[in-house]
Specification:
The protein has three helices and 14 strands. The radius of gyration is 24 Å and the shape is globular. A hairpin with a 2-residue loop joins β3 and β4. The chain is mainly beta. About 25% of the residues are buried.
Amino acid sequence: MLLGFAGYKAGMSYAMVIDDEPGSPNFGKEVVRPITVIDAPPMYIAAIRAYVRNGNGLKALTEAWASPIPKDFERLMPIPKEVKVEEDLKKIEDSLSEIVEFRVLAATQPRLSSVPKKKPDLMEIKIDGGTIEEQLEYLKKILGKNISAEEVFKEGQYVDVIAVTKGKGFQGPVKRWGVKILPHKSRKTKRGVGTLGAWGIKRIIYTVPRAGQVGYHQRTEYNKRIIRIGKDGGEVTPKGGFLRYGLVKGHYILLSGSIPGPAKRLIKLRHPVRQPKRVSETPPQTIFISTEPQQGV
């Protein structure tokens, strides 16, 4: 199976679900939860990449690309004129005793979403489960095919979310670090730090709050629960569409809570690296999902 997937952030809403978290004081009751809607059209499996291990760690041995390569890949990188799939797969089979890991090069399909671009996003996703031989047989089946989110994740499970946060530009220490605003009679500045350090130090140490870049950093948020995976975006799209995004046309993923980044941003999901100990064995029961217009009435 694949260990990751990707989509585009559409926006947020709220849903009414039955709380099934073990030990929760609201267990079995209806609770209102904020949810994030991810537009997740199927990903195209463009290539297989095999890895071997040497003294420096993992090293890419060879690749096998699908044929034909979609036309949109011309926007991403130079496309080879001729792709020899059978020869590349035969080379991988001959080196199977050395290979320790397989990964796929999977591409998003922005044309199937409401993101205003055509250039796909390419990412490397690891394959896990079974033996190396079984993994290769699985890869042969999916090479050049589309993989949907429901083939990677299931409802109710936890995932880690990797995304780039909202960019806020160059900001001062009050906004960036939350330092106290000095009294109005302060000398030189109010929205700055009271001292940059001792007299005897010939430099400013790194712990002093200073102005600089805020936001637009890659961050990972752990253990976001999947509320629902669906194929009809009309079930979760507010009337008139999401603000700054539009309509969710097809496949979607509902996550409990918020995630980094603004609308339209690429969101990468993966299987959790530190899953909670107490996890419900059944998918969450959703009673109601709000589709009220976000532009007002």
